[in-house]
Q: What sequence folds into this?
């Protein structure tokens, strides 16, 4: 797994961004950017060469699902791996995310091992 | 209120705190709460709509939430502040999500709003409906917290 890539973490809760950053740093990732909602994430994507997006679903202004659809509809980012990390665990949520082109899906609460395993699958 | 609507919130709470804060918590006996005064010092509230309309709240004693967030972040938290409020919001969100997953398996589908957080001694918890408030006390080695579940009649 290439840990030198640039990762964008999107979540409206700073606590969750810190937890994910801690886990990613333990795995070896160093280039970590943050956004607290979908619209800020769009700006970060436009200004940086992001290699992986890890996003929450339920956020104000723009949801993670809307961000995912925007990413997939934009030629520049269409193939960027996108991991949804969300408390939305109902079947319909997973179906919508898969239909929108999510790379993988992690339900909160999660372990560090679960995040690591999903990233290995996405970035292999 | 049906017990089968309450159990998913107990199971969700145990799972969330064990997974994210590495803490074993002990549920107490649910009871009907008559007033709106919070049992804790910081409370997360989230609205639910769908199979029924209502709210759930999670209210923590100061010592308890400081221990929980310290474990979640891997650093010692000493005071109630914005970081704690943020963590309570996310914990409430996760309890809601896990409970809704179990409720879906019972044929009850709910959607959740974005949680809000209230902080301060003896604050009030405003549930959006006037249905019965079922309180579920939990204890930890570092203090107590209480979940309230309130659905319309």
A:
């Amino acid at each position: 797994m290439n840990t030198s890539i640039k990762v964008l973490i999107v979540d409206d809760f700073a606590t969750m961004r810190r937890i994910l950053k801690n886990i990613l740093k333990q795995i070896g990732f160093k280039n970590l950017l943050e956004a607290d909602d979908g619209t800020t994430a769009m700006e970060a994507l436009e200004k940086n060469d992001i290699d992986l997006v890890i996003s929450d679903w339920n956020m104000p202004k723009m949801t993670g699902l809307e961000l995912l659809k925007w990413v997939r509809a934009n030629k520049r980012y269409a193939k960027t791996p996108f991991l949804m990390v969300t408390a939305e665990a109902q079947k319909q949520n997973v179906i919508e995310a898969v239909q929108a082109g999510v790379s993988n899906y992690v339900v909160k609460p999660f372990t560090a091992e679960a995040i690591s395993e999903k990233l290995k699958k996405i970035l292999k | 209120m049906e017990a089968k609507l309450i159990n998913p919130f107990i199971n969700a709470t145990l799972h969330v705190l064990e997974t994210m804060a590495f803490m074993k918590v002990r549920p107490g006996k649910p009871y009907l709460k008559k007033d709106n005064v919070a049992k804790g010092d910081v409370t997360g509230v989230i609205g639910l709509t769908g199979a029924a309309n209502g709210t759930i709240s999670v209210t923590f004693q100061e010592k308890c939430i400081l221990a929980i967030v310290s474990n979640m972040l891997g650093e010692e938290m000493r005071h109630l502040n914005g970081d704690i409020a943020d963590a309570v919001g996310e914990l409430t969100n996760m309890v809601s999500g896990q409970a809704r997953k179990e409720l879906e398996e019972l044929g009850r589908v709910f959607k959740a709003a974005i949680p809000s957080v209230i902080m301060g001694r003896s604050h009030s918890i405003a549930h959006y409906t006037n249905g019965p408030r079922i309180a579920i006390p939990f204890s930890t080695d570092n203090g107590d917290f209480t979940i309230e579940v309130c659905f319309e009649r």
Q: What stands out?
A: Chain A has one domain: 6-123.
